[in-house]
Automatic annotation (TrEMBL), chain B:
Pfam families: ArsP_1
Protein topology in the membrane: Multi-pass membrane protein
PANTHER family (alphabetical): UPF0718 PROTEIN YCGR
GO cellular component, one term: plasma membrane
Signal peptide segment: none
Residues annotated as transmembrane: 12-32, 44-67, 87-109, 121-144, 150-173, 216-236, 242-264, 312-335
Record organism: Alkalicoccus luteus
Main location: membrane
Top-level taxon of the source organism: Bacteria
Keywords: Cell membrane, Membrane, Transmembrane, Transmembrane helix
Species classification: Bacteria, Bacillati, Bacillota, Bacilli, Bacillales
Coiled-coil region list: none
The protein, known as: Permease
Family: Belongs to the UPF0718 family.
């Protein structure tokens, strides 16, 4: 008795699930673009292992009772049947939204894609060679990063100073997904300098329990590897139209930056904003480590 | 005996094939839009963890299968000479060059111990490899660029603690017999592999694949259960409850360790989650989060209980917990 055929079918099913998500674009709800090389590797491996199992006729080495295989149908069924949708404001509420200050950590990772993507690729091309090679590259890597150790403070300030130069003096700033976290961090670091600047931003509506009816947040989930690590970033908005926008509706806001306080912290607030409903963008998340 | 209650594999396989094909071809029509949104969130996080962890689990079972089929206990003994506590330091050094995360490491360690690697060395791998690897170093560095002491503490302490944990486990279990469970049905099949050595690359690859496929199901079922529980917590746990205790020196360390355990993040991504806590938590508690999660979390606990003796897993968990807790508090008492 062998369950090889059943295993083959399920493995193929996982390959198909990933393929379907990649083709439909739904994969963006689960996985950050930076991890995609690993996901492709997983998909191909599922197909290969599945194909080998379909045509296998030997006895099982590790016999599993059949309910184990049924368990693997759960993620498959859920993946195919349940709607693909981004996380919503109930999760945002449980995770806590970051208004500026705390966001600057992840905002710094602009370089990460450069260092990680080739590594992921080399892993894919030749996992074993890659693993062997790591012994050697580790030292080089340490060297490569070492100079940064001494100047990381300056680097941090330099990065945002430079960015500040780019935006300072602008009468208006339109924030898109690539600049969402960077601009929010700038607004927080240099709130006073940006007072009076017109800002246009879009996100989904989120409310803290203590907000009054004219206030809401344009929020985005920022994802590093997968949805499990997604954090929430947002800009507080005061607008007379706020009440028209229920939680989780996507909207665009245009208003003027003022320095304000929330929970005893100084934050940038977008005031007198005009709000407009928009369609959910193709990519519901923003990616701090990927540009 | 058992065979009579089994469903015939070919019928089950055929039914599942049909089921999957229908779902794949008609997924747009079949979408269950009315599902409650909280459960869609659970599903999104659950699938996110599973899809992200799957490639790494596959790497783990492929590596494990290669070791299983083509590495002999004699070779292991040659690579890891020495006995008792002399194996700890080499194991920690090997752990630093194995780029395996916590999803991939359990099958590999289990296999190595079965092949004759001393269990204390295996456990040093298990706790060291998911932290001490280049990808994790890079992500931690980027997340904590402006707080480098956390990077140093994470990697320095991970090395030291892996040795301490290995030493304690060795002292407790050195004369207590095997730490690995032997599963019925597995013992008798392990002698037939080595005669197939000379059959060429294609046959070898096929054999690795078929063994890896079986092992994927053996390991994957625990990943599925762990990922589901983690998704429940991720969806319904209100993090502000944690933040209210964030500033207390000792309580915050304990809370962040518990949090790391429940979240079951990949060690490659946890640094970014930790940095999102920002200044609300102490550096000691952030370091504890970064050390404890990769060593022990919900999804690998379930795997550990399945493959190691219950008593051993319990002692292992207590040792890791105490070592991380004490190590972090001591370190920060000294450096601050």
């Amino acid at each position: 008795m062998s369950y090889a055929f059943l295993r083959g079918v399920i493995l193929m099913g996982f390959g198909l699930l990933i393929l379907g998500l990649v083709l439909s674009g739904g994969i963006v709800y689960y996985i950050a673009p930076i991890m995609m090389p690993f996901i492709y590797f997983g998909m191909v491996t599922f197909f290969i292992l599945g194909a080998v199992q379909l045509f296998q006729d030997k006895e099982d080495d590790h016999p599993q009772p059949w309910p184990v295989y049924v368990l693997f149908l759960v993620p498959l069924t859920a993946g195919f049947i349940l709607p693909e949708r981004g996380l919503d404001s109930s999760v945002a509420e449980n995770r806590g939204v970051q208004y500026g200050a705390a966001a600057h950590g992840p905002g710094l990772q602009a370089e990460e894609s450069e260092s990680d993507t080739p590594r992921a690729d080399s892993y894919l091309d030749d996992p074993d060679g890659y693993m062997e090679a790591l012994g050697g590259t580790e030292e080089e890597e340490a060297d490569e990063h070492a100079p940064l150790d001494y100047e990381d403070e300056e680097w941090f300030e330099g990065y945002y100073e430079e960015l500040f130069e780019t935006y300072a003096g602008a009468d208006e700033i339109a924030v898109d997904e690539d600049t969402f976290i960077d601009v929010l961090t700038l607004l927080d670091l240099y709130t006073d300098s940006f007072e009076g600047t017109e800002v246009e931003v879009y996100g989904f509506a989120f409310r803290e329990p203590d907000f009054d009816e004219n206030r809401l947040v344009a929020a985005r989930f920022g994802m590093t590897c997968c949805v499990a690590d997604a954090g929430v970033y947002g800009l507080i908005i005061d607008s007379e139209e706020a009440a028209d926008f229920g939680d989780d509706t996507w909207f665009q806001a245009r208003g003027t930056i003022r320095a304000g306080t929330y929970n005893g912290q100084e934050v940038a607030i977008l005031e007198d904003a005009e709000l407009e409903p928009i369609e959910q963008p193709d990519s519901p998340y923003v990616y701090p480590g990927y540009q | 005996m058992v065979n009579q209650t089994r469903i015939r594999p070919d019928i089950l396989g055929g039914a599942v094939l049909l089921f999957i094909l229908i779902m794949f071809l008609f997924q747009d029509v079949l979408t269950f839009e009315a599902a409650p949104s909280a459960w869609i969130n659970v599903n999104t996080i659950f699938l996110g963890i599973v899809i992200e962890a799957a490639p790494f689990l596959l790497i783990g079972v492929l590596l494990s299968s290669m070791i299983h089929l083509y590495v002999t206990p004699e070779q292991i003994a040659r690579w890891m000479p020495g006995k008792g506590i002399k194996t700890l330091l080499p194991a920690a050094l090997v752990g630093t060059i194995l780029p395996l995360c916590e999803c991939a490491i359990v099958p590999v360690v289990r296999r190595l111990i079965k092949k004759g690697v001393p269990f204390q060395a295996g456990m040093v791998f298990l706790v060291a490899a998911p932290i001490l690897n280049p990808v994790v170093l890079a992500s931690t560095f980027f997340a904590f660029r402006n707080q480098l002491e956390i990077v140093y503490v994470r990697f320095g302490l991970a090395f030291v603690l892996s040795l301490v944990i290995g030493l304690i486990l060795y002292l407790v279990f050195k004369n207590k017999g095997p730490v690995i469970r032997t599963r019925p049905g597995e013992v008798h099949v392990h002698h037939h592999h080595h005669h197939e050595h000379g059959q060429g690359v294609a046959a070898r690859l096929k054999e690795i694949c078929s063994h890896a496929a079986e092992e994927f199901f053996m390991m994957g079922k625990y990943l599925l259960i762990g990922a589901f529980i983690a998704a429940l917590f991720q969806t319904f746990l209100d993090r502000s409850v944690l933040l209210s205790i964030g500033s207390d020196e000792i309580a915050s360390v304990a809370v962040m360790m518990g949090f790391a355990y429940i979240l079951s993040l990949c060690s490659e991504a946890d640094a970014f989650v930790a940095s999102s806590f920002g200044n609300q938590f102490t550096p000691a508690s952030i370091s504890a989060f970064l050390l404890y999660g990769p060593m022990l979390d919900l999804k690998n606990t379930i795997m550990l209980f399945a493959f190691f003796r219950t008593k051993f897993v319990i002692v292992f968990m207590i040792t890791v917990t105490a070592a991380v807790f004490a190590g972090v508090l001591l370190t920060f008492a000294v450096i601050s």
